[in-house]
UniProtKB/TrEMBL annotation:
Protein's name according to its UniProt entry: Carbohydrate ABC transporter permease
Protein's cellular compartments: Cell membrane
Lineage summary: Bacteria, Pseudomonadati, Pseudomonadota, Betaproteobacteria, Burkholderiales
Bilayer topology: Multi-pass membrane protein
PANTHER family tied to this protein: ABC TRANSPORTER PERMEASE PROTEIN MG189-RELATED, ABC TRANSPORTER PERMEASE PROTEIN MG189-RELATED-RELATED
Length: 274
């Protein structure tokens, strides 16, 4: 089958956009392999030698880094699982259950998307301070469990599932909970993967709330801990070390995306993964 000139033009445009998207990432990675002394002289010789892994060795030389990685894994992992569970329950309720004021409640949930994070930082800080939850995993996780986008995504996905599946299960005397858990929820794997990626990415890269809630170094997340190790002149005198920190912090997210990429593509396409 011959391809038209229009298809070739679209392909060329897609390749060009992909290259433009990858170039900054490649630039960051290459700079992370350069010594700070070399980068203080020039930053344009990206492909010239010498290369070094000293910047990564400096990161791993700090024993607190492993504690920060553990904190980020616990916070991001538990938060993602709870967001998936709560958003799925709420989405199924809005999609399948009829109750008084349903539209108003759903509108109130979506209104949370319009609330900027800095507007609620002070009330959250005072609330968790009164509960004594700062410098704890609960204090880092609980504020992010309210996920209006997750509720909206799961609601729309549940609405797209035919009701005949539930009706057939009801005829077999299956309970509502069993229908949700055994029949409907497995069909939402693409949406679950997409929401999980966004939730994990947001939790892993979160900086503002850990900066407020975690005041002890042993409770720092990776983003907060790496920022704490930077000097006032990190962007000029420690550029290679700064770029190595960025690559080191991004690796878990890239690995996670590589594993769930087909589910994300299927969710965007509106189908099931192959």
């Amino acid at each position: 089958m011959k391809t038209s000139w229009f298809d070739r033009l679209l392909l060329a445009g897609a390749v060009l956009l992909a290259v433009l998207w990858v170039l900054p990432l490649a630039w960051v990675f290459v700079l992370s392999l350069k010594s700070n002394a070399v980068l203080m002289e020039r930053t344009d010789a990206l492909l010239s030698t010498p290369f070094t892994v000293a910047n990564y060795a400096d990161i791993l030389a700090n024993p607190a880094v492993f504690r920060w990685v553990l904190n980020s894994c616990v916070v991001a992992g538990v938060q993602t699982l709870l967001v998936l569970f709560l958003s799925s329950l709420a989405g199924y309720g809005f999609a399948r259950c009829q109750f008084r004021g349903q539209r108003w409640v759903f509108a109130a949930v979506l209104a949370g998307l319009a609330v900027p994070e800095p507007a609620v930082v002070i009330p959250l800080h005072r609330f968790f301070a009164e509960l004594g939850l700062h410098n704890s995993y609960a204090g880092l996780i609980l504020p992010r469990l309210a996920a209006p986008f997750g509720v909206f995504l799961m609601t729309q996905f549940f609405k797209a599932i035919p009701r005949e599946l539930e009706e057939a299960a009801l005829m077999d005397n299956a309970s509502r909970w069993r229908i949700f858990w055994r029949v409907i929820l497995p069909l939402t794997l693409p949406a679950q993967a997409t929401l999980g990626i966004f939730s994990f990415l947001g939790a892993w890269n979160d900086y503002l709330w850990p900066l407020i809630s975690a005041t002890r170094p042993e409770m720092y997340t990776l983003t907060l801990g790496l920022a704490a190790t930077q000097t006032n002149f990190a962007q000029s005198e420690g550029l290679g070390f700064l770029m190595a920190q960025a690559v080191f912090a991004a690796l878990p997210v890239l690995v996670l995306y590589a594993f769930f990429q087909r589910h994300i593509v299927a969710a965007v396409a509106g189908g099931r993964p192959a």
